[in-house]
Design brief:
The protein has helices at residues 2-17, 34-42, 78-83, 97-100, 102-115; strands at 23-27, 47-49, 70-72, 89-90. The chain is α/β, with parallel strands linked by helices. Strands 2-1-3-4 form a 4-stranded parallel beta sheet, with helices on one face. The chain is elongated, with a radius of gyration of 21 Å.
Length: 134
């Protein structure tokens, strides 16, 4: 593993020398998959991690915020959304539940086809949305 990491580091510097832009990323150190996400991003030759220096870090380091291109967190953080710079990418998109939630996706697609004067049943698979009374 050490040899692989050293080889990748060498390739990263070669990538930089060729003029390809290195993207710097920060991953929140929480949740059950942050180590996997960090590992997968590090495998990209153009991605370089920005670490804050301590294990459980829940916000990007303020001193390096302007140097970070990609920000990954477990849950959506309003503060990060409000402070994003134009070039930064954040893994939480406003309104994403409209397509990532099966019930909302079905509702939106049904409305889409009805507004076009089409029968949604001709285009959408049979779906059941089960709600729980509270």
């Amino acid at each position: 593993m050490v040899a692989l990491n050293n080889a990748l580091r060498g390739k990263q510097s070669l990538t930089e020398e060729k003029g390809q832009r290195i993207m710097r990323f920060w991953v929140e150190n929480s949740g059950n998959n942050f180590q996997l996400i960090k590992h997968l991003l590090k495998r990209r030759l153009w991605m370089q991690p920005v670490d804050g220096g301590y294990h459980y870090q829940y916000n990007p380091p303020a001193s390096q915020l302007e140097q970070i291109d990609v920000i990954m967190t477990q849950v959506k953080k309003r503060r990060i959304i409000e402070e994003l710079l134009p070039f930064q990418v954040y893994n939480h998109i406003e309104g994403i539940s409209a397509i990532s939630n099966k019930g909302l996706l079905h509702k939106n697609m049904t409305e889409f086809y009805k507004n076009k004067g089409l029968d949604p049943c001709q285009y959408l698979p049979e779906s059941y949305v089960i709600t729980q009374k509270r």
